[in-house]
Amino acid sequence: MKKIIAGVDIGNSSTEVAIAQLDGGYANFLSQHLVKTTGIKGTTDNVKGICVAIQEAAKKASIPLADIELVRLNDAVPVIGDLAMDLISETIITESSMIGHNPDTPGGAGMGIGITVLLDQLSTLEDKEQDYIVVIPKEMDYEWAAYQINKAEQNGITITGAIVQKDDGVLIHNRLTKKIPIVDEVSLIDKVPLGKLAAVEVALQGYVIRTLSNPYGLSTVFELDPDQTKQIALVAKALVGNRSAVVIRTPQGELVERKIEAGRIIMQGVNRQESEVSINDGAESIMATYEKIGALQDVRGETGTNVGGMFNGLRHDLAQLTGQPAQEIMISDFLAVDAVIPTSISGAIAGELSMESGVALASMVKTDKVPIQKVASLLEEQLGIPVEIGGIEADMAIRGALTTPGTRKPIVILDMGGGSTDAALMNEAGKITSIHLAGAGDMVTMLINSELALENKELAEKIKKNPLGKVLSLFHMQLEDGTILFSKTPFPPHTFGKVLIREENELTPLPNTLSMEKVRDIRRSAKRRVFVTNSLRALKRVIPTGNLKHLSFVVMLGGSALDFEIPQMITEELGKYGIVAGFANIRGSEGPRNAVATGLILSSVGKEVAQ
Amino acid sequence: MSMREVYILILHHPVFDADAIKEVCAGLEEEGVPYSLQEESRLDNCVELAAMAASSSTLQVGIGIDRTGNLCVHHEKLKKEEPYLLGNLQNGRKAGKNAARLVKGLSLTL
Predict the structure, then answer these.
(1) Which ipTM value was assigned to this complex?
(2) A597 and A16 in contact (C-beta within 8 Å)?
(3) Domain membership flag for residue A254
(4) Does residue B109 fall inside a structural domain?
(5) Which of A29, A296, A494, A605 counts the highest number of beta carbons within 10 A?
(6) Residues A119 and A198 in one domain
C-alpha cells in the first residue's frame, strides 16, 4: 500500500515541510519546502505559514493536496529566548567640546591652538599677543574667507587654525598666504563655543592625529593638572584613529561624572547552590562561574544596577511572550558575551560615538507545554487532512541527521537556529539526551548591529549572511580575500567606491565610515563569540563524561549551519578535540535543512530512505 | 593652475564663462584633481559634450555643460549614450566633486 505523508517542522524562524510516499517500510521523498515561520513558534499563528509550505511542497511534488493522507507535526520544544545588551559603566564628560571626524579633504596639516573667533569678527580683533582659531559658517564663500584670513594676518593677528562648515578646507588652504590646519565639513558649527581655548589638528593623508588623541597631548595643550587629565582622557580615547579633530575647553568649574553601578549576576543552581559574579569581570568569568554551578534554576541581576535592569527587562519580555506572570519566569540558561556598545558623548559636536565596553545577554526560559495541540487542530480543520503530533524534536532531528552520508551512532547534532543553539546526543543504544541553550543567530545580528553602530537590524542581518566587496573602479570590485572581480557592466553610481554587501542579486552599499576590514572582523568575531562558545558549551553538556575527546561525530543543523562561515569556524574549533564536525547533508541532498521534517516521516516507517 | 599633463576636461558651451563654471572647478580643486576648461560650440547636448570631453581627457573622465546649464559627467570606457552622472550648474560643486572622486575611486555624493 502506498501512502503519501508530510512532515512539518515549526522552528523559531522557519517552517520546513517534507513530503514522502511510503511504500511498505520505505519512504520515498518527493519534495520539500521552506517558509518563514508566521507568528511565535507553537502558536496558532503558525498555521498560515504551514499551509503555504505544504501547498508549495505539493506543487513541487506535482501531486494534488488531497493526496496527502497524513501530516506529522513536530512537538515544538517549550523554550523561548530573548536578548539584552547594556554598558558596564557610563561616564559623561561635561568640560570639553570636541569634534573628531574624518572629512575626506581637510586643509593643510599640523596643529593649531588659539581662541575661537567667528570669521566676521576678525577685523575687530586687537590683541596681537593672542593666537586665534577662526570659525567659518557655511554662508561664507571660500574666497571671501581666505581673503579675510590673509588680511587679518597682514594686520598682525595670528591665526593658527580654522573650523569650516562646508567642504571648503582645501579651497581655503590653497588661497592662504600663511598655511594653517583646517578641519572642514563640521555640519553643526553653531555648536562650537566662541571665545574659548581650542586646538585644531589635521594629519597628513594616510596618517592619524597624534596630539589630540593622546591624553598627555591634551594635558600639554590645555595645561591640565593630573585630575583634569584623567577626565579628558575619554576625549582622547574618542578621537583615536581620526585624521582631523578639534577639542575646545569649556571649563564650567564643576565636573559631572555619572557612573552607573554595573552590578552583579546572582545565579542559582538546581541544587540550591548560589553564586555571584560581578559583570565587570567580563563574559569569560561570568560563563566560568556559570559552568561551576552546573544546571541553572534561575538567574537574577543585582537590583538598581545595569545588569539588574537587563534581567528584569528579559523577564518582562519573556513573560509577555509566554503569557506567564513575570515572577514565575525562571531563566534556565543564559549566554553572556563581551560586546562593544557605541555611546554618545556629551560635548561631541559632530555626533561622535565612544565605543564603550558592555555585555550582551541571551537568556532562555522553559515555558508551560507549548499549545501544539491547538495548532494541530486548526491545521486539520484548514487542510482537511488528519494531523498528528510526532515525537520529540531532538529525536526527529537526529533521525533526520543520520540520513547524512558518512554518519552513524553515537552521534551528536548541533542545531544552530536563530533563537537557540540545541544539541542532542544519541548513543549506540539509541538513547537520546538533549539540551537547549540561549544565544544563536539573532544574538550575532544584535552584536553586529551594535558594534558597527548601524541602528538598522535588517542591514545587520544582511551583513551577517553575506560576504563583502568594495567597488574600486567602474568595472572592478575587490573581494574580502583580496581577489578582484571584473564586471562586464559598470557598477551603478550609488555603489561606486563603496563597501558593499554582496547578495545574490543585489549589492547593498554600506555607510562610508565602515571599512571592509572592520565590518569583516566584527562579523566574524560576533559569530565566533556566540557560536563557537555555544557549541563547546552545548557539547560538554550532552556528553555523559563532559569530555569533548569522547565524541566522534558532530553534525550541524539549522539555519545558521547554512551560513557561509559559521560551520567552518566550528569544524576548525572542534577539530582540536579530534571530532569530525561538519554541517549535515540531509538525505544526501538537502544540506543542513529539513532534518526534523525528514525525521518525522522516517519515524513513521522506521526505515531508512529508499533512493 | 588649470593646464597640466593630467586633467579632467570640461567642455562647456560658450554662453558660460569661467566664472559661471567656478563652482564645478571648486569641487574639483577641493578634491585635488586638476582640470582644464574648453569652450565647445559645435555640440549642444551635455551628454555628447561630456562623452567628447571624456574621450580626450587624460584621466578618462570628462564633464560637459550645454547651453541650458545641464551638466553631465562621463567616462571614456562607458557607452556614449549611457552617461554616468547627470546634473546642472546649480549644483556644480557636487558634480565637480563627483567627477574628481570618480577618478580617485571614492564613493560619490548623489
Answers:
(1) 0.91
(2) yes
(3) no
(4) no
(5) A29
(6) yes
Whether A172 and A100 map to the same domain: the answer is: yes
Q: What is the mean pLDDT of each run of 10 residues along chain B (110 residues)?
A: 73 91 95 93 91 93 94 94 93 94 92
Output the pTM of the full model: 0.87
Residue A156 and residue A212 in one domain = yes
Torsion of CA A152, A158, A164, A170, to 10 degrees: 90
CATH number, residue A164: 3.50.30.70
Q: Tell me which of A142, A496, A512, A513 to substitute to probe the interface with B (most B C-beta atoms closer than 10 Å).
A: A496
Find chain B residues with C-beta within 8 A of A493's C-beta: 84-85, 98, 108, 110
Beta strands in A270-349 (DSSP E): 274-278, 296-301, 331-344
Name the β-bridge partners of A70. A5
Convert the pLDDT of each residue in A387-436 to its tens digit.
998 877 888 899 999 999 998 888 999 999 888 898 999 988 888 888 88
Q: Among B26, B29, B108, whose Cβ lies nearest the Cβ of A496? A: B108
Q: Which of A105, A496, A509 sits opposite B30 (nearest CB)?
A: A105
Which DSSP category does A56 fall into? H
Query: How many structural domains are present in chain A?
Result: 3
Residue ranges making up the domain that contains A270: 82-89+259-366
CATH number at residue A392: 3.30.420.40
Cα–Cα distances in Å, from A381 out to A6, A11, A378, B57? 16, 22, 5, 72
- How many CA atoms lie within 13 Å of B33's alpha carbon, on the beta-carbon side? 26
